[in-house]
Fold this protein.
Amino acid sequence: MTLEGTFDVALSPQNDDNAPAGRMLIDKTYYGKMEGIGTGQMISKRLENGTAAYFAIEEFVGKINGKNGDFTLLHSGFMNADSQSLDITILKGSGTGELATISGKMDITKESDKHFYKLDYNL
């Protein structure tokens, strides 16, 4: 099944002295057929030449098509002058409640200041 909708996100930078990468706390609110909150942490590195990478673990709690539960999303993203990639997957086995057997992938896009998600999943 595929769901599409929007989400709000707030990133809170953390002060980790002597760390080679930045860390942020993630707070999201999802709207649409995926309704709930996402919280997590992101580790990122950006170089002056524009090369960047990030990894995050996000815990979603809420409803998917009216089914209650939670699950973990694993994020990894890379970009440089030639290309970029973003991979967001549901950690298989992380689902609970009515979402206990969930698996799948998510795509996110940003247009102006608005964030959009597309969740392809199986239950």
